[in-house]
Amino acid sequence: MADKLRFSLVSPERELFSGDVDQVDVPGTEGDLGIFPNHSPLMAAIRTGAVTVYTDGEQTQYLVQGGFADVTLDGLTILAERASLMENIERDVIEAEIQTVEMSLGGLDGEAALNAQQNLDGLKQIASRL
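Given the sequence above, the corresponding structure tokens read:
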């Protein structure tokens, strides 16, 4: 299927998605990525945010937190530290996580502070969609 992209979304707990899709939008740490069939190979770190999967005119979103996106000639695999189907996310859980990250920011610096801030920004963006 040259006009479809083979996509898998995997977390430590389970595989959340595996199938052929039209496009996947990925929140990369260096910027958002739009992955289409026949995309050039690459590997990118991902930040907290929404992975949007486009298939036959429909969209499905997943919340991901950390991990890597690996594009090969065979397709795209996302290995996420945490991932959930967006429709299963509860606003109060996200808000509690936002408070936890905000409290931890003061004691961090360097790369740890940058990672925590990206996580916080992603969580706030997700909370605004719920």
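The mean pLDDT is 92. Try to locate this feature in the token string yourself.
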